[in-house]
Amino acid sequence: MRPLGFVDGKIIDLSENVVPMEDRGHQFGDGIYEVTKVYNGRCFALKRHMDRAYRSLRELRIPIVYTYEELEEMHNLLIKESGITEGGIYLQITRGVAPRAHGFPEHVVPRLTMSIRPASSNANLLENGVKGLLIADERWLRCDIKSLNLLGNILGKQRAQEAGCYEAIQIRNDVITEGTSSNFFIIKDGILWTHPVSNLILKGITRSIIIEEIAPALDLTILEKTFTPDFAKKADEAFVSGTTSEIMPILSLDGIRIGNGDVGPITRRLQQAYNEIIDKECGRKQ
Ligand code: PDD
Fold first, then answer.
1. How far apart are CA 18 and CA 16, in angstroms?
2. Ligand 1, residues 32, 201, 243, 246: which to mutate, most atoms within 8 A of Cβ?
3. Are residues 95 and 161 in the same domain?
4. How many angstroms does the Cα of residue 172 sit away from the middle of ligand 1?
């Protein structure tokens, strides 16, 4: 079992130097990415992730040159060659390699690179919950695109880590948007609240699975409506959702306890349902 890269159609060692100096991803952050989780040696929700990658490419006017079947094959090849059964696959597509100039270059082909790594277990955090830090959302206005430009996100995450928190929850105009690498939900009086889909958040795959598959199955009411940080602090339960975070209970915001400060019963039911969906799709046995 070893981490691997995939560049120009070839499997490589991750330590190899392969990024051309004038790749626009390297110079401008001119590209998109996806992170897909591998459970039991199979990609989870790959179709949803690749559909979102296609959307991000269209929004950035980067030509689409790979079919879904090809992308699926590359993911499976990385799993097979690495021997990794529990891990994460990173996929990045940049506009291509060209002399540095802001406008789109002509006659370039988008450049795809990928990597696979084993996942470190976050079972302990999922079981016991984590702390959240509230920060100002300083990102650009197209957070719906999964672009390589993540400066606002990384600065926010770093602040959270320095404050001993798992995630920074971002606020724009007194409204909670999302985490730096996750979507944010609260539960108040039995209703799940989360920011509506707009240019201000990434439409998370985990978020979509909660809204489209889990909530109806558990007969839970979802409200995609904005809410303030003050409202969130008075919630009964809170959690963030994401490919890496899964359904991660948030027990406090800025040190203020949410509910009774324990992982709440609805969050637990959501976690269980999410695990069952993974078990079924990836043939995993608990
Ligand atoms: N996070 N919002 C932002 C800003 C993100 O970066 C992510 C993904 C999400 C959740 O999306 P999804 O459920 O599709 O992972 C929301 C990284 C890639 C992660 O969780 O690994």
1. 6
2. 243
3. no
4. 18
200 and 78 assigned to the same domain: no
Same domain, 257 and 167: yes
Question: Tell me: the pLDDT tens digits for 77-92?
Answer: 999 999 999 999 999 9
* 181 Cα: distance to centroid of ligand 1 (angstroms): 5
Residue where a domain terminates, one of 74, 89, 118? 118
**Residue 208 belongs to domain with CATH number:** 3.20.10.10
Nearest CA to ligand 1 atom 21: 244
Mind listing the pLDDT tens digit for each residue in 191-228? Answer: 999 999 999 999 999 999 999 999 999 999 999 999 99
pTM beyond cutoff 0.90: yes
Q: Which two tokens stand for residue 201?
A: 């958040």
Domain boundary among the residues 102, 118, 134 is at: 118
User: What residues are annotated to the active site?
Assistant: 146
Locate 3 and state its tokens. Answer: 């981490």
How far apart, in whole angstroms, are the C-alpha atoms of residue 1 and residue 84? 5
Domain range for 66 is 4-118
Closest C-alpha residue for ligand 1 atom 9:
182
